[in-house]
């Protein structure tokens, strides 16, 4: 999104304020950061809640959106094929829409796992009259909770949604870790505006960055050092500065992509 388009979005929000708005977390947090950079106040519009979905919601995105627009952020989890699977209540519980959805957490062999253990989220939809939708593998990793939410709703709760399987990276020694292990390295560098990490293989990882005032040798050296500390000292870390991080074909933004099976 160009600065002109971001200014347009802010103008539209102020010209026709609503009680809620809805979007990708990456897009809403980007708009919020732009408003902050412009010194434009957006917490006086009367917005009651910002709904986000379709991407993993990171803590810093939630904080940025909430601070800028002066409202809580409600997360939603679903899939293009499965529809909405869970919604976040005011207490923070991700309630499964169990009236018409069955959610299982399974291991690599498709065997259901107990509550508290991480595995792939599998969905059976009970309201698809045209076509059976049975034990659909989402590719997402999650954990079921065996407790009740403080809000009092009796619906089952997803304790954690860790992300899509390609959001995980594999170290040279075979250790599997969440992409957050690499994301936080770049998040801690204030000079970096945006980035994308692509693990091409166990031997090569590309890091594309957009910076405020240019990629320095010191910054590149720090990124390489920290990445090697997690992925392995023999891994080739290719760092490239670009003007803008392109979106996926779906219009979503992904911080981490792993091509390692």
TrEMBL record:
Keywords for this protein: Ligase
GO MF term (any one): ligase activity
Ligase found in the keyword field: yes
UniProt key word Transport: no
Gene3D superfamilies linked: N-terminal domain of ligase-like
PANTHER family, A to Z: CAPSULAR POLYSACCHARIDE BIOSYNTHESIS PROTEIN
Protein name: Phenylacetate-CoA ligase
Organism: Nitrosospira multiformis
